[in-house]
Amino acid sequence: MAERVRETMISLIKKMSDVVLRENERIDDLEINGFRIIQNPFCFCFGIDAVMLANFARIKKNAKVLDMGTGTGIIPILLAAKGKGSDWTGLEVQSEMVEMARRSTELNDISHVCHIMEGDIKDYKSLFKHAEFGAVTCNPPYMKANSGLTNPSDNLYISRHEALVSLEEIIAAASYVLKSSGTFSMVHRPYRLVEIMTLMRKHHIEPKRLQMVQPSIGKEPNLILIEGVKGAGVELRVLPTFYVYDENGNMNDVVGGVG
After folding, report:
1. Largest CA distance in the chain
2. Alpha-carbon distance 146 to 155, whole Å?
3. Which of these ranges, 4-13, 171-180, 247-256, has the smallest mean pLDDT?
4. Nearest-CA neighbor of 205 among 164, 238, 170?
5. Helix, strand, or coil here: 88?
């Protein structure tokens, strides 16, 4: 057993030495099955919303999965680490993020099953076949274009605002690429819940599960996790509220440990 652990560590160190880091980049431990990710603090880094979405998403073991607006590739990488699905595709429009995410898949030896594509979500009909995926995930920009403060970095603005793609375009794309009974899982802000559910039904994705996320007991929810199923019947389950911190100020293990 000790020899096997030693060989694994040697292999991991060699793999890390083979991956080139750019200026300001770092390698973060995802604390699940040895998986790691490359991040740049001057670009958009993943947050607890991506971690919670990866945990929330119900994905069959043999499903082909698409993550739209994948950024650093955090969601498909976490799904691969958890064994949720068997083949993962991350779609991202920003070239620098695509290149970084691809190096993270190489770092984790999953580039043969985790594919990072450069492309615009709005071009979904030319990028993907109809009903190609069994599951779709998305951690989209939360704010409408031209709302809130403009970030000095275009990368951050695009990641947080619907500058390049709207909520309806995201949901329409999910509906097109999903198989019948396929799942669409998304994290978003509570104030857009009515809009989200209306658009899901418009595009034949029936809301099936909803979970509110509160920073702590007594605080208003600041995130929602929602799942819809393509072509399903009407029935929505509201799950128990997820608290990021308990009454003693301790972070929930699901968030603190990533995995």
Report:
1. 57
2. 15
3. 4-13
4. 170
5. strand
Taking the alpha carbons of 41, 144, 142, 72 in that order, is the dihedral positive or negative? negative
Judge whether 133 and 177 are in contact, CB under 8 Å: yes
Residue-averaged pLDDT of the chain: 88
Round to whole Å and give the CA distance between 255 and 52. 7
At residue 236's C-alpha, the angle toward residues 235 and 238, to 5°, is: 150
Residues 6+ apart with CB under 8 A from 23: none
Residue whose token pair is 């072509």: 231
pLDDT band at 4 (very low <50, low <70, confident <90, very high): very low
Q: Do residues 37 and 104 touch, judged by C-beta distance below 8 A?
A: yes
How far is residue 140's CA from residue 29's CA, in Å, rounded to a whole number?
24
Alpha carbons 12 and 17: distance in angstroms, whole number: 9
119/128 Cα distance (integer angstroms)? 11
Output the pTM of the full model.
Answer: 0.86
d(CA 185, CA 54): 9
